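Homework help board

Subject: predicted structure for assignment chain

Our instructor gave us this sequence and asked us to write out the predicted structure in token form, then describe one feature. I got the tokens but I'm not sure how to describe them. Can anyone check?
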Amino acid sequence: MADRPPLMYTDMPDLRLLNRGKVRDIYDLGEHLLIVATDRISAFDVVLPNGIPYKGKVLNQLSAYWFNTLADIIPHHMVTINLQENYGVPAALINILAGRAMIVKKAKPLPVECVVRGYLSGSAWNEYQQNGVVCGIPLPPDLKESAKLEQPIFTPATKAEIGSHDENIDFSKVKEIYQAGRTFKQCFRDLLFWLFDEFGLIIFDPSTTEVKKALTPIFLTEINNFRIHTQKLVAVSATLEEVYHAQVKVKPVNLFYHIDNGRHSIEPVDEIFKLKRKRKQFTRDEIIAEINEHPDRFSPNVLLRPITQDYLFPTAFYIAGPSEVSYFAQIHPLYEFFEIEPPVIYPRSSATLIEKSVLSFMEKYDLTMRDVFLGTDQLKEKILSTVAENNIEEIFDNAVKNVNLIFDDLKEKLFSVDKTISDSTNRYRDKVLYSINELKSKAEKAHESRFEVIIRQISKLSNLLYPNENLQERELNYFYFANKFGDSFQRKLYEELSISEFEHQIIEI
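My token output:
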């Protein structure tokens, strides 16, 4: 292999970045996801500054091997590691990402990491010191740190974001809910009931045959009038883009067809309806007959889903987040087409949760949430400027201004001597500015090395309060907080979150 620097980060403007984990970057391809294994190293839940060349390729291909090997035992999300343009991967990236990326099905991740321990170390040792158990499993008394256990133990943990630690889960509850022979849907339903039943939660399964039969009129109306629907949705989406942004990309037909354990978009071509990435098609009469005879084979896409929901359960009020408000503005014409009364949209509450240790750090450096929301780089710049004797940014900004003044003066004076020489000053100016920029990069690295501990604390703060430069609610899983702060966590949220306050709220936990 040729020597290459490790791939630490990916930046693909043509694709939408969904998440940047400790090692993998995830991009949206529409119906699928693109997961790229970088060469980043994560140790003790911290991403280290240096990577290992080709580590991501090895990791990606090991994963692919075991997915393929165990495919007949348990289903998985991998589609292929052979990148192709027809999946939405830009042609220019296929060779660059070869070997280190896989295309996967979209799925709801279960935020639990399965850990088997043979030795009493790390978070297990910390938990053992408190009460003699690890994840609800009693262990013999008087064990020493890193002692070998008589038998390996299963200690699941919540998967945390970058800069946060995975938290151990009481195994007894996981075992009680996630039993062998049950589906993920059944387990997840019971988990939600366990957490939120006291608050009046109702869970409805829309995928049953009876429900699909009830939705037959909606499916037929969509197939018979999709061109009118699409035309209006495109017009509304264009208007939204001018003043805000359209939340969803409009498709010709707002239905999926289910076949061979897959879900495929329906794409009209003249009077034929084809399945995307499937060699199957219907005439208009055939697809109408299919809806009438097998409505369970159809499901609404994201644009039609609220229509089916409000058709089944007429809704007076819908509590929506910022993106959903835009979403409902985009689909409003469909309510008129289907003659369904739209719900009143009520903005949901939004909050950032601040832990005590993080709050102490913010108070120490006189930080507010406005500072955090400026982004990690500006946050670092603000804090370092208060603790460092010299402001690197200011020093080099002044240097660049002075260089420009000098060369402007030279250019003006040389013009009377020789216009050619005067014009060439820009070339020499660029060389000097390039050297200054190079020197600035070295100075910034030296600056950061000097304040390495503070830099790590800033990164951790950003990852907890503004992960991936996004609100907590868009990035951090509920179970990270629930597992860390116990059964009282949702009660605290219930009591402290104001539903009538539309400004972003700050809650200390």
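Reply (TA_rk): Your tokens look well-formed. For the description, you could write something like this. The chain has a mean pLDDT of 87. That's the kind of observation they're looking for.
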